[in-house]
Amino acid sequence: MKRTTPVRTQNRRRRLGFTLLELLIVLAIIGVIAAMVVPRLFGTLDKSKINATKTSIDALERTIDLYRVDNGYPTAISDLMQTVDKDGREIDPFLDKIPRDAWGNDLHYEAKNSKAKTTRPAIWSSGPDGQDDNGGNDDINNWSDLVQQ
C-alpha cells in the first residue's frame, strides 16, 4: 500500500522557507536603508571630531595665555613642557605632551601669527586629511573666525 501525504501537509512543507525573490527584496531594502544611514553616521562622526579638535585648540590657547603671564609667548610649543623657568627655577610644566587633534596628529603652533592680523599665536590641526596645509584647506585653526569678521 502506497502512503500518500495529504495535500495540506505538502503545501505546508513548501511554505516553510523564504523564496529567493523574497530574500533579494529584503536585502535590497536593507541596502537602501544602509545607503541612507551610513553617510549620515560618518558625517556626524567628522563633525564631532572637528568640534573635539576645536576644543583642543581652545584649551591649548588658554594654556598659552597662562604661560604668557609669567614668561611671554612661548617660541615653540615644547616651551610649555619645560620644568625649569628662564631664571633656572624648577616649575611644573604647563603641558605633559604636545596636544593632538581628534585624528591623532600633533597640533601646530606658530608664535608670530602670519596668517591673520592678530597678536594671538597661530594654532592649527592638520584636519581630517592629516596633511599640514599651514592652516588652510581642511585644516582647523584658531584664526579663521577672526578673518571672517
CATH-defined architecture: 2-Layer Sandwich
What is the C-alpha radius of gyration, as a whole number of Å? 30 Å
Q: Domains counted in the coordinates: how many?
A: 1
Write out the strand line-up for the largest beta sheet, numbering strands in chain order.
1-2-3
CATH topology name, in short, is Glycoprotein, Type 4 Pilin
SSE string, helices as H and strands as E: HHEEEH
Written description of the protein model:
It is built from three helices and three strands. The chain has 149 residues and is mainly alpha-helical. The protein has a three-stranded antiparallel beta sheet, with helices on one face. The radius of gyration is 30 Å and the shape is elongated.
Briefly, what is this?
This protein is mostly helical and 149 residues long. 44% of the residues lie in helices and 6% in strands. It has a single domain, classed as Glycoprotein, Type 4 Pilin, CATH 3.30.700.
Q: Which features would summarize this protein structure in a list?
A:
single chain; 149 residues; mainly alpha; Glycoprotein, Type 4 Pilin; 3-stranded antiparallel β-sheet; 3 helices; 44% helix
Secondary structure elements and pairings:
Elements lengths: L6 H8 L5 H52 L36 E3 L11 E4 L14 E2 L2 H5 L1
Antiparallel strand pairs: 1-2, 2-3
